[in-house]
Amino acid sequence: MTATALSDLLRLAPYQAYSYSYPHKTAYRPIAPRASLADAWADEPRDALFLYLHVPFCSYRCGFCNLFALARPAPAQVEAYLDQMDKQLKVTARALGEHRFVRFALGGGTPTYLDAGQLRRLFDSVRARADIDLASIPAGIEVSPETVDAARLGVCREAGIDRVSMGIQSFSDAEVRALVRPQQRDVVENAIALIRGHGFPTLNLDLIYGIAGQTVASFLASIDCALAFRPEELYLYPLYVRPLTGLDRIGAKSGGGRSFALQPEPLDDRLALYRAGRDRLLAAGYTQVSMRMFRAAHAPDSGGPAYCCQSDGMIGIGCGARSYTRGLHYSSEYGVSRRSVADILQHYLALDDASFASIDYGFVLDAGEQRRRHVIQSLLVQPGLDVEQYRARFGSDCFEDLPQLHELFELGLATREHALVALTEAGLARGDTIGPWLVSSHVAERMRDYRPD
Q: What is the largest CA-CA distance in the chain?
């Protein structure tokens, strides 16, 4: 991957892969012998951790979704899952020893698939098991419009949740249908009104571009509909048709196919849609944080204790959640199809305390991979890569460790001001090319060799 010149990759389609985390879960493999959870965290800083809880249940499976999620589970399965999350939290907190969580997120799936009583039970478990004060730290939850009601929101606000993220994808009924998503606009608008009525400081709305039949005009119309609600954050996501999703199965019938390698896909109109959407949000006073994220001027400061995603650890609780130390990323196995997700979930429901106290699936990051991850996690968001911070952490120069970074300047995709290397407007637009370009050959090979279920 790194042997390929960025100038060559820029001739390919602009949307190659979303580098939201490095390495991707498709690079994870079984770990043998099992690693002790307590040993994995023994030498790690534990005073500024992120706690993520994964609820893998949904009302329905959207056509574009490749997350670890199961639509319409049996009620008894949901109850058993909450029992297991509590057990895993207890075992994990014991293995961590003295610790403090300074960030919290509840994702999925759709966490608000749980009813109000189940959500209360989950928050009670978090308070009982972990060193965390949700009311004094940034704490978010993901919701879908059809699961939003006053009872659920009341429980979340009372627990200390201050950010609600909702996937709208589009305000056009035709575009939503093209995504295989049964959603009505009035349900979306009622959900936003309820969220606003409960006083959550931050509302984030997600929109997708690249939908079949979508035009620049229709995409901008969806953005304008979203702006009418003055969301503190807006995310613009390019549509990816990933293996084993509903849209991929539809495409396979016409001979389509995907792999995890960089692909010379036909150029499409997603870049034009992105640019139009970006310009509309910038004109509306939003600040661009990454290729996807835009923040309003009226958005509150995150507040709370400091957390650095490049170096501070994450604890993931629940089937499908991933955890990070500096040298080890781990999780349950990864699946997309309903059969695979159901099998992995069934395995999770059978785990005992001893199983939760060990690690058997993940990726070991050597010194080179740790450096690469720091660069990727820093460079793709604003304000960018701090070369002095990098040197303080690793004792080396990032341009000597990754000489390919010089090409960013040659192509006008990045600038350097003092210690800060930041992507230009053109660089941010090509974030889904730059991210894959920075992937190591070892990780790229593992991703290529991964065989989806």
A: 58
